[in-house]
Amino acid sequence: MAIEEENKVICGRLSALRECMKEEGIDYYMMPTADFHNSEYVNDYFKVREYFCGFSGSNGTLLVWQEGAGLWTDGRYFIQAQSELEGTGVKLFRMLDEGVPTLEEFLAENMEKGQTLGFDGRVVSCRDGKRLEERLQEKKIRFVYEKDLAEKIWKDRPPFPAGKVVSLSEELAGKNTWDKRKEVMEKVLAEGADSLLLTKLDDLMWLFNIRGCDVECNPVAMSYGFLTSKEAVLFIQTSALEPETAAYLAGQKITVKEYSRILPYLESLPEGQRVMVDDRYCSYALYRTLSSRQTLVERKNPTELLKAVKNPVELAHMEEIYLKDSVALTKFIYWLKTNIGKQEITEITAADYLERLRREIPECQDLSFPSISAYGANAAMMHYEPTLKNHAVLKPEGFYLIDSGGQYLGGTTDVTRTVSLGTLSAELKKHYTLVAAGMLQLSNAHWIYGCTGRNLDILARQPLWEIDMDYKCGTGHGVGYMLNVHEGPQNMRWRFTEGMAEAVIEAGMDISDEPGIYVEGRYGIRIENIMVAENDVKNEYGQFMHFKTLTWVPLDKDAIDVNYLDERQRTMLKEYQRKVYEKVSPYLTKEEAAWLKRETE
Predict the structure, then answer these.
(1) In a 3-state reduction of DSSP, which class is residue 275?
(2) H or E element at residue 257
(3) Can you give the pTM of this predicted structure?
(4) Fold (CATH) for 309-596
(5) Ranges in the chain annotated CATH 3.40.350.10
(6) How are beta strands 195-198 and 274-277 bridged, if at all?
(7) pLDDT at 501 over 80
């Protein structure tokens, strides 16, 4: 479909939505990027925001009113959103840019007293709903949160997800669900609550040692959990349970109820319970139901931190899987550099070749996210994804960026490399070298316990800040274990944002290290490794810590100008490249190993 025709379709959908809003008495209608659990990535059924505006990024909120529409998204997607929204009549609001109002500020300024704000309360978090209540209280704004207006308009909407659910062996999980539930309830009781409503999908998968397939590349199943000291109830689509999984859950004394019964179950609870909820992931609709009869203890899910600190079994499996994944990517880089200019390679065929290499690894189950395969200017869009209609052919010049990962029995991987395909300008070499220097500085960090990612982020950005450059995203995120490729509470970012998660880095936490440079319309550079925090020396000053690297893929020798590195950075580069050859070369062919030897010298 041509861009003009696509824009006509979007405009038609928005017109239909505005008519529906009139019928329902709704003045402004809000559509976030979320499912009933406020997940980062969602099943196609929940892509309502994308349906009505065409923006396909994983984060953004669309607001529609009779005279216009606006999309709020973060710096990862500015370039992509500007392109995808062009011609639709939807205005881009660049979050955190100077002078750009937040969604709440925009509503408070533009809504008139007594008007109505509509949204589907199942896909808006409790936290966001309460924030809107507080901000719009003075204008006596009425909330209509029982309406999913897309149901009336989206005639060919994909079916609600109900993929098969399997159980995970203790040999892979490293800890049984009994022990996990006991740890969780100890923390719940310590906070003065007597029960926990758990709504975050990857936390539920971790707690019950199960995995699903309801979200592309994310092995999660639509579910809820309700825990007390005496009982664990799992709300899940029973039709999705394999017989072995149903038997496993019964054997673990887990009461299984239909997913759709969560609301009636909460309504039937005796009044006066103290229920712990995490307002980031509990929906506004569930919050309103619970708060009318129960006392809510609003805390972060205790499962989040327990899940983030990987146990010894998980760490051992991860180390093995990351090496196998690194070998696959190294083989891919060799293939790419050897064949560029000799055969046609596109962003799609390159990503497909790497996926085939991953799927040759016996433990591989799937990709961990759709590969970001971007050549030249496309790499300036941080989360660019090529399509059959829109992709580039790689040429023997400039940079190609590949950000990809796999879901394995034994780990979830995420790695980015920017590969030189031929002649590079002095500017490209300088910028690649400084990005590499930042990545190496962070991976070689040595710090005292108590630091968060905000304390360490400067190590990755410092080489770029020195030349007055930066990147509009965080430097790092946690990675799940056979789960979501993005997980918290750990992260690596310099900016303080009210309400943003920030956590002390604990031994056993894994985190990505991915500085970059993105020049709109020209190129993008990102280098990403995954690391695990470990304890180091402990003395009278405290517990010191360091990172252990899991990713062993060579840095591009042809893209590095050592004149931009100081002596310590050169030493770090040499040591990393030496270890790459040492660890990866035994798994390569003779030709590949000879190339890697030259690449890492």
Answers:
(1) strand
(2) strand 254-258
(3) 0.92
(4) Creatine Amidinohydrolase (3.90.230)
(5) 3-153, 166-299
(6) parallel
(7) no
Chain segment 88-128, per-residue pLDDT in tens:
889 999 998 899 999 999 999 999 999 999 999 999 999 99
**Residues 6 or more apart in contact with residue 293 via CB below 8 angstroms:** 267, 269, 271
Q: What average pLDDT does the segment 421-442 reach? A: 97
From 63, 83, 55, 84, select the one nearest 128 (Cα to Cα). 63
Cα of 507 vs its chain's centroid, Å: 22
Structure tokens belonging to residue 251: 């054997």
Q: Does the domain at residues 3-153 carry the CATH identifier 3.40.350.10? A: yes
Q: Counting Cβ atoms within 10 Å, is residue 140 exposed (0-12), middle (13-18) or buried (19+)?
A: exposed
Q: Which residues contact 134 (CB under 8 A, 6 or more apart)?
A: none
Delimit the CATH 3.90.230.10 region(s) of the chain.
309-596
> CA 536, 316, 485, 236 torsion: positive or negative?
negative
Q: Domain 166-299 belongs to what topology?
A: Creatine Amidinohydrolase; Chain A, domain 1 (3.40.350)
- 8 A C-beta contact, residue 218 and residue 41: yes
Q: What is the pLDDT of residues 172-188, one digit of tens each?
A: 999 999 999 999 999 99
Largest alpha-carbon pair distance within the chain? 74
Residues 6+ apart with CB under 8 A from 205: 211, 212, 219, 220, 221, 483
Separation CA 205–CA 220 (nearest Å): 6
Q: What is the mean pLDDT of residues 295-320?
A: 97
| Predicted local confidence at residue 499, as pLDDT | 60
Cα dihedral 109/112/118/119 (nearest 10)? 10
- pLDDT of 546 > 70? The answer is yes
Buried b (16+ CB within 10 A) or exposed e, 336-358: bbeebeeeebbbbbbbeebbebb
Mean pLDDT score of the chain: 95
Residue 4 confidence (pLDDT) above 80: no
- Dump pLDDT digits (tens) for 22-48: 999 999 999 998 999 999 899 999 999
Where does the pLDDT of residue 7 fall: very low under 50, low under 70, confident under 90, or very high at 90 and above? confident
